[in-house]
C-alpha cells in the first residue's frame, strides 16, 4: 500500500510566501519520498505532465467559471479559518482535474495526500490516509467512482463527521470503536460522474464539471508551455496544434512535445514553425478535426461492421479489441461532443457528419433516420 504525500503546501513554488496550515503544522513534516521543494524544471525529464502542470490557480487557463467559483471557495475558507468543503471534479481525461486538485491545497497552504480509487480495495487501505490527514489538509481520491462499496461506506462518516468506525473482533466479542479524525477535505475526481453512487455524490458540498476547452485557451496553454520547454513557436503553429487537440490540454501538451521533436531535427534553432507543425501533425496522423487513428477506427468500425449503428458499446469494443472502458473514457466523449456519434437507448450511432468526415456519403437508412437525420449537427468545437 502506497501512501503518497506529495508536498507540503506553500513550499516548492518559490514565488509566494509559504502559508501555514490553518490548524498549525502537522508533526514530522513531509514524509520521505516527497520531491525536494523548488526542484528546478528539467526540460528533458519524462514527467512532462507534472512539469507542465500549473502550480497556482492564476496559472490555470480557461474554465473561467469553475476557476472563479473555486477562488470564492478558497477565499471564504481562508477568511473563516475553516476547512474547505469536500469537492468533486468531473470531466473527461486530461482536462485539468488532477491539476486543480493539486493547485487547491497549495493555494490554501495545506498538505496533500493522493490516493487512487482502484488501489483502495479495502477499508484498511484508506485508513492510513485518514489517520494521517493533518488539520485542513486535502485527500485527493482519483477515479473515485471505482471505490469498492465497503471503502465508500467507510469513507462516509469520515467525510461527514471526521470520524471512523472500526469493527473489532467478531461474534459475541464484536464491538465497534470510533476514532476521531482531524477535519480534512476530500477532493474526488471522476471521468464518470454518472457512475458515482448517490450517497457518495451527496457527501460533496461542491461539485464542478470541467468541459472541453476553447481553442483560444489551448493556444494560450501551448504558448506558455513552449516557454517552459524553452522553445519558440509561431502563432499559426500554436493555433494548428490547439485546434487539433480535441479541446484537451493534455493532448495539446503531447502534440507540442511531438512537434518539438520534429523541430529539433528540422530547424536550426529548433523553432516550431508552421511547416514543422504541419509535418508533425501529418506524421502523427491527426486530422484537421483533431481525430487520431483510434478515433477514426472507431467511426469506421461503427460504419463498416454495424452499418452506422445503433451498436452497443461492448460490441464495438469487441470488434476493435479495445476495452469498453477505454472507448467510453478516452474516445467517445469528444466524438459525442463534436456531434460525430450519438448515444441512443439502442446504442451508438454514427451521424451524417461522421460519414462526411471520413469522406463517405451518409446512408439514408431507417437505422440512422430516427436518430440523426433530421437533427442539425451539434455545435462544433473547431
Ligand atoms: N486549465 C489548465 N491550464 C493549463 N494547463 C492545464 C490545464 N488543465 C490541464 N492542463 C495541462 O494538462 C495536463 C493534464 O491535466 P490533468 O489535470 O492531469 O488532467 P486530468 O486529471 O483531468 O486527467 C496537466 O499536466 C497540465 O499540464
Ligand atoms: Mg488526473
UniProtKB/TrEMBL annotation:
Please indicate if the UniProt record lists Nucleotide-binding as a keyword: yes
Residue ranges for the region (Disordered) are 1-49, 347-382
State which Enzyme Commission number(s) the record gives. Answer: 3.6.4.-
Where Mg(2+) binds, per the record, is at 98
Question: Which molecular-function annotation in GO is an example for this chain?
Answer: ATP binding
Q: What's an example GO cellular component term for this entry?
A: Holliday junction resolvase complex
User: What is the main EC category here?
Assistant: hydrolase
Q: Give the reaction(s) catalysed.
A: ATP + H2O = ADP + phosphate + H(+)
UniProt cross-references to Gene3D superfamilies, sorted A to Z: 1.10.8.60, P-loop containing nucleotide triphosphate hydrolases (3.40.50.300), Winged helix-like DNA-binding domain superfamily/Winged helix DNA-binding domain (1.10.10.10)
User: Major place of localization?
Assistant: cytoplasm
Q: Which UniProt keywords apply?
A: ATP-binding, Cytoplasm, DNA damage, DNA recombination, DNA repair, DNA-binding, Helicase, Hydrolase, Nucleotide-binding
Q: How does it assemble?
A: Homohexamer. Forms an RuvA(8)-RuvB(12)-Holliday junction (HJ) complex. HJ DNA is sandwiched between 2 RuvA tetramers; dsDNA enters through RuvA and exits via RuvB. An RuvB hexamer assembles on each DNA strand where it exits the tetramer. Each RuvB hexamer is contacted by two RuvA subunits (via domain III) on 2 adjacent RuvB subunits; this complex drives branch migration. In the full resolvosome a probable DNA-RuvA(4)-RuvB(12)-RuvC(2) complex forms which resolves the HJ.
What does the protein in this record do?
A: The RuvA-RuvB-RuvC complex processes Holliday junction (HJ) DNA during genetic recombination and DNA repair, while the RuvA-RuvB complex plays an important role in the rescue of blocked DNA replication forks via replication fork reversal (RFR). RuvA specifically binds to HJ cruciform DNA, conferring on it an open structure. The RuvB hexamer acts as an ATP-dependent pump, pulling dsDNA into and through the RuvAB complex. RuvB forms 2 homohexamers on either side of HJ DNA bound by 1 or 2 RuvA tetramers; 4 subunits per hexamer contact DNA at a time.
Question: Which family would the database say this protein is a member of?
Answer: Belongs to the RuvB family.
Record's comment describing the protein's domains: Has 3 domains, the large (RuvB-L) and small ATPase (RuvB-S) domains and the C-terminal head (RuvB-H) domain. The head domain binds DNA, while the ATPase domains jointly bind ATP, ADP or are empty depending on the state of the subunit in the translocation cycle. During a single DNA translocation step the structure of each domain remains the same, but their relative positions change.
* Matching NCBIfam families: PRK00080.1 (NF000868), ruvB (TIGR00635)
Specify the protein name.
Holliday junction branch migration complex subunit RuvB
